[in-house]
Design goal:
This protein is of the alpha/beta class. The chain is built from eleven helices and 16 strands. The strands form four sheets. It has a seven-stranded mixed β-sheet with strand order 9-8-7-10-11-14-13, with helices on both faces. Helix 1 packs across helix 3 and helix 4 crosses helix 5. The N terminus and C terminus are likely disordered. Zinc ion binds next to loops.
Length: 319
């Protein structure tokens, strides 16, 4: 028997106001465009697996039958993404606290410390290595690498995050990977960024080929391990154009001759450019489809309610 579960998802006032504004724009101002699969290009063989994302934002996700990539289709226009990254998204995503920027800075600094430690232990970083972090928010991560005497720079399209980071003393540029100028990084980091890109293949063409590429993104098939109670709809987020698994991100990277050296199911991986890389596309459709179905059977999403947050943090409840 399927157990009926009700759960409440608490949000802060900051988040609720931003969400209200976003839902208005999705309905009245933003426009959607259909697109082929960002990895294999297939544009008609897919199945719809969700018509809403976290917080009930009406955005559809489909699973590509040719390669198994889960992606948003139709997606928002690039100008709409740009708009939301500079308005609602930082508040919805990081608005658990009053001090959104301070909280972000600390969280990213801690993440940077743990990534530095991991690189050091795995002998992936040398003392003189220069770091570039793409989609770095206010640059807390750069601060961690600078403390260990590495030159570190960041790129971010949220202008207010860039200003905040510059005030805190890190080197940030407002823009995309195309705006790094003559900087020659040895390590390029994408933390929770690759899944936001409308054209990830094009992005890969702009990454310096002699750098080590480190990607961290929320892996679809790790929902049961690090996402609250296997909630598939909670995992989906409206600005995530793609939702990778280890095979689908390997497919993406291989298309531009990037070969993985380390990777796990959370989809944290280390890649190097290899002009002779000839990995073919591995179709991940069957495994991902089964996994999504299993996640959906766990929770009844119809009872999602947004409640006043009095405690200032997320609180998921089951009855
Ligand atoms: Zn595909």
């Amino acid at each position: 028997m399927k157990m009926k579960r009700d759960y409440t998802l608490r949000m802060t006032e900051v988040q609720k106001k931003a969400l209200e504004s976003l839902l208005y724009k999705v309905k009245h101002e933003y426009r959607f465009v259909y697109m082929g699969c960002p990895v294999c290009g297939n544009d008609n063989e897919y199945i719809v697996v969700a018509t809403e994302t976290r917080y009930r934002v009406p955005i559809t996700n489909v699973l590509c039958k040719t390669c198994g990539l889960l992606y948003t289709n139709p997606r928002l226009r690039e100008k709409d993404f740009f708009d939301t990254y500079n308005t609602e998204y930082p508040k919805i995503f990081r608005g658990w606290r009053e001090d959104v920027m301070g909280h972000t800075w600390k969280a990213l600094n801690d993440l940077g410390e743990s990534e530095y430690e991991m690189f050091r232990k795995m002998k992936l970083i040398s003392p003189d290595d220069k770091i570039l972090c793409v989609g770095c928010a206010n640059g807390g991560l750069l601060n961690a690498f600078e403390k260990h005497n590495h030159e570190a720079r960041g790129i971010e399209i949220d202008a207010s995050a860039v200003l905040d980071g510059i005030r805190r003393g890190v080197k940030l540029t407002c823009g995309t990977i195309k705006d790094i100028g003559s900087y020659e990084p040895d390590i390029v980091i994408y933390n929770d960024c690759m899944e936001h890109l409308v054209d990830p293949l094009q992005e890969l063409r702009n990454i310096p080929k002699n750098a080590m590429l480190f990607i961290r993104t929320a892996g679809l098939r790790a929902i049961h391990e690090n996402w609250l109670h296997c909630k598939f709809d909670y995992f989906l987020q409206y600005p995530h154009v793609t939702n990778f698994t280890a095979p689908t991100i390997a497919n993406l990277l291989a298309k531009e001759n990037w070969k993985w050296r380390y990777m796990n199911s959370f989809v944290t991986g280390v890649f190097y450019f290899d002009e002779y890389c000839n990995i073919g596309v591995q179709n991940d459709f069957a495994d991902s489809y089964r996994y999504i179905q299993a996640c959906k059977e766990v929770v009844d999403y119809d009872n999602l309610l947004l409640f006043e947050n009095k405690g200032g943090k997320t609180n998921i409840k089951y009855k």
